[in-house]
Design a protein that fits this description.
This protein is of the alpha+beta class and 449 residues long. The protein is built from 13 helices and 21 strands.
Length: 449
């Protein structure tokens, strides 16, 4: 039995040349015990390092006994064991199940070395549970595709090499091993959705249709293929409609509703937003994209806010606020800006390969600083412009959205504005030759994560 499962285990793994070692998520339960035995054999054969990590959640009165059991199994297999203890908060509005999962993956991510593979014991029956939970919450193709066998994780890869192996096969295999396993009593608590499915619903489904897990896995694989196809389509549409990190509304008007919604979901996911429901997408289109010309519409999407500016949709953080700091800056030293606004630098021309704003060198009585505001009533005259204007008017002319105003770094020579972001250099500060290169590098997704 172990040899048959080991053969399938090896076939699902990438080439070992790309791995710096293996880290097994080891609960001490039946599934992860079989996984650890398989990983130990694979590591020996491939000459790879192997570690196991056990997370002590503190939820069970037997949690310390489980640690002792895991230590014993790892000693027998000559596998180093890491034990991480986490604290969960009861009554904070989030389920203990979700908290435990988040904490567990957080500790696994922190311990995963660069290029290391994290092996998880998810199996075919877990996939069926995942599918049923996805149906319960009304998920789309991405949710119905279930867990993938391989995905980037932290500084390495998360691999699930047992997804095609049933729980019954793993149980038969575990019975032949000398290590035993722990039983988590919370797995019997059907108040948890997964346990309800595992203890009550899935046994009935499999009694009626014994091949239910295998056929569901095939359906999930098809969903994964379809998701890949619609993702390719969304990427192609993104290339046509993208304006920076925004979307041009005129380009969206030419798409069918289904194709437009597909692109909007891709865009929101790309910028790290929570996936909206269908009714939210309809609101986004009707109340933001198609709002009257003189409106300043916005729609909350949990962690992000959708806004419209100059014919494009943008996703921004809802908590953006003007900055008021005064930050000293030294020539040749990059200056990290607050609130994830990126980096500023002032370098001798030619030192970085960027010519930037080509500012004259500051005088001794002109200390350099970066600020985000100008004094009330100040008038600025960009080089090459015929007259002076207030900063608000200039930012409008340069197409700066309202939510970015007060968040653009302004370079001061003493108390005089020398340059505003990467938009313009002020009259009187441009170098005739040589000089300093002023550069602002916003983060990749400015004000949108």
């Amino acid at each position: 039995m172990i040899s048959r499962i080991y053969s399938r285990f090896c076939q699902t793994l990438p080439s070992p040349e790309g791995s710096s070692g293996l880290l097994v998520a080891f609960s001490g339960g039946l599934d992860s015990t079989v996984l650890l035995v398989l990983a130990a054999r694979y590591a020996r054969e491939q000459g790879l390092g192997l570690r196991a990590l056990h997370v002590h959640h503190g939820l069970s009165p037997h949690a310390d006994e489980w640690v002792a059991h895991c230590e014993g199994v790892c000693r027998q297999l000559a596998v180093p064991l890491l034990v991480e203890r986490v604290q969960l908060a009861r009554g904070n509005g989030e389920s203990l199940e979700a908290q435990a999962r988040t904490a567990r993956y957080g500790r696994l991510a922190a311990r995963l070395a660069k290029g290391e593979w994290l092996l998880s014991a998810h199996h075919q029956d877990d996939q069926l549970e995942t599918l049923l939970l996805a149906l319960k919450r009304g998920a789309g193709l991405r949710g119905l595709a279930g867990m993938v066998p391989s995905q980037p994780f932290a500084s390495g890869l998360l691999l699930r090499p047992l997804l095609e192996v049933s729980r019954a096969e793993l149980a038969a295999c575990a019975a032949t091993l000398p290590y035993g396993w722990v039983e988590d009593e919370s797995n019997q608590d059907t108040e948890y959705d997964r346990n309800f499915l595992r203890q009550r619903l899935i046994p009935q489904l499999k009694a009626r249709w014994p091949a239910m897990a295998q056929t569901a896995a095939r359906s999930m694989a098809i969903c994964a293929e379809q998701e890949a196809l619609v993702d390719e389509l969304a990427q192609a549409d993104w290339q046509q409609a993208a304006e920076g990190e925004g979307l041009r509304i005129a380009q969206l008007l030419g798409l069918s509703q289904a194709r437009r919604n597909n692109l909007l979901r891709y865009w929101i996911r790309r910028l790290g937003g929570d996936m909206p429901a269908r009714d939210q997408l309809a609101l986004l289109w009707q109340e933001v994209a198609l709002a009257r010309e003189d409106a300043n519409p916005r729609l909350s999407l949990k962690s992000l806010e959708c806004r419209r500016y100059q014919g494009a949709l943008h996703l921004v953080r809802p908590d953006l606020a003007p900055r008021h700091e005064t930050l000293p800056i030294a020539v040749g030293e990059p200056l990290p800006l607050p609130d994830g606004l990126g980096l500023c630098s002032l370098q001798p021309c030619g030192a970085t390969g960027r010519e930037g704003g080509r500012l004259r060198a500051p005088r001794a009585d002109e200390p350099l600083s970066v600020r985000f505001q100008v004094a009330a009533g100040s008038m600025l005259k960009p080089v090459g412009r015929g007259g002076s204007r207030r900063l608000k008017k200039l930012l409008q002319e340069y197409g700066v959205p309202s939510w970015q105003r007060g968040r653009i770094p302004i370079l001061y020579y003493g108390e005089q504005v020398a340059a505003v972001g990467d938009l313009f250099v002020c009259d009187g500060f441009l170098a005739q030759e040589g000089g300093m290169a002023w550069h602002w590098q916003p983060r990749t997704l400015p004000d949108s994560e």
